[in-house]
Amino acid sequence: MQHQVKKSRCALLKHAVRAAAVLLFVLSSEAAAAKTTRPNLIFIIADQHCADMMSCAGNKYVQTPSMDRLAQHGVRFTRAYVTHPVCIPSRASFMTGKMPTQCQGDVQSHTSLGSTMKQAGYDTGYFGKWHIQPRQTENNLSWHGFDTINTRGVDSEKARLSVDFIKRKRDQPFFMITSLLNPHDICQWARIHSGVNDEMRNGDIGPAPAPSKCPPLPANFDPPLDEPEVVRQRLVHDKRARTSVHPTSDWTESDWRQYRWAYCRLIELVDAQIGRLLDALEESGQLENTLIIYSSDHGDGNASHRWNQKVVLYEEAIRLPMIVSWKGQTRPGVTDERLVSMNLDLLPTFCEFAGVEFKEELAGKSLRPLVMADTKNDPAEQLHPFVVTETKLFDDIKGRALTTGRLKYIVYSAGKRPEQLFDLESDPGEMNSLVGHPDYQAELQRHRQLLQNWTDSIGDSFSIAHVK
After folding, report:
1. pTM of the model
2. Cα 405 from Cα 385, distance rounded (Å)
3. Residue 248 CB: number of other CB atoms within 10 A?
4. Which of 96, 229, 331, 452 has the greatest number of CB atoms lying within 10 Å of its CB?
């Protein structure tokens, strides 16, 4: 009898061991499956692309079939803003998820997006323009985290390297940043058009047609009423600004129309490179397992307020294209008007898709709940109550913009008329500042206080004491 009990116990023990082994195998298999089914992640970033310059945004003067293709399968955010309308601070910001002022000193004191993805088990690659200071960050693998990195070459070469990376055989998901230079060549085009010696870095786009065959001038072509004094001072404050950055002081309306034509052609060059990446994903059977985000490091004046390039805080310079697309998974063909901070929201978005818990405190938020087809989503629920953009016009002249949705507040650190307040719903071109309007004094005070609270909270030394 005792022998039978002992035998039964042994049988039960063996059964339990086998069951535990099976359960462990199942759990391990599920964990492995979860790990292998994480999507590939791609960030395609252009340089100097403003928000509305895509055919999927309704612009009939530019054709962007590849961007349209991304938008067809995903969500296009129409109110995505940059944290700084200049390359270097913007790129440090999206790489760390921090505001530019927080990256001053040593950007490497913050954890990078690339190292986060590498530690999460992704095969990491970076191809294209780097432009994060100090320059040695490019060679610091322990900080940037990219297993493969190549920052040289023209856009066509950057796309080729990206395609090669996509097609590699691997047993893990990949994270890739493709950083294209265009439409930044519009800076070179403006100089060449003004008789300054320069060359198009990514290939010639040919001569501009007659102005009558070019896009018309924007409705906000002229500067706004009561524009802050320091904005126009930037155009003339030194020789470099007059001849190299903004060689436009003598331009006629015809010159500006040809500028807008050239800008469209350069964006189409960007679109063609994006198409090469999408084709490579499709050919390798990875398109439906890859999340793609497309955006830019800042915009371009594009003749609005007679402005070329960036730096200022008008919409054309700080509002960006931003598309989040995962074929078959994201909400297809959706336009979302909620406020997004591209630089701050990018890192937490990629972290959530990768299943990573980021250790540092971030002001940004993941866009995953807003874009996935299988999540509950209330369009009326805002991601952010406001977004903030920083800038430095020249010398020690700084500026800040705070957008709460319908209203947008701008303030510069010096000069006459340093403030602007715009109703972007009734005045999308930012032509009529409401700073002196009696009906908007409460909103003016509210926006001032929101900005001051924000700068205080992140350790930004910018002050609005001179306008109170």
Report:
1. 0.91
2. 8
3. 21
4. 96
